[in-house]
Input
Amino acid sequence: MEQRIGSSSQPLKGEPVTGAGFDPAFIPGLTGSAAQGEAEDAEATAEAADSAEAERSSAPAESVPEAEAADAGEEPAEDGGPVFEAADRRARIVADRRGVRLALDAEECEFSWPEIAAVETETARFGKRFTVTVHTPDRRWYPIEIEADSRARFAEWDASMDAVLDAYFESE
Output
């Protein structure tokens, strides 16, 4: 696959133009644009108002700790769906119901399922490197390599990633 740079590379029609050339604070997968940040602030304010209203209501005592846990940013227990997780001394990949999270050293990025156009896995012909590449709809890709302890892990990781993609990824 090849990324094109220059005048022959045109944005897709019908999509808003975003990116570092138009918003210096925009880094796909790491941060949202300023408009997304404002929308998230508005949602957080609305959620805080809803939780305050729930505390004032005559709700059972059991529902209040759940609202507090949601405000604290903690998610409820997993629903038991498939999870793919692979890591080595530098890199880490986690794919579950929330999306795909990639980490390399101190850098991390997270992609929710609607932000993902495709997920590609590849094994090295020689060596023990397993590569996962996340493709976004704006034709960018984010590869990460995990070094396996043995080549036998490749089949296990492929099966686990396929199970996660079958469960959560919806191609349109």
User: Anything to note?
Assistant: The longest strand covers residues 129-135. Residues 56-77 have pLDDT under 50 and may be disordered. Residues 92 and 103 are 5 Å apart (CA to CA).
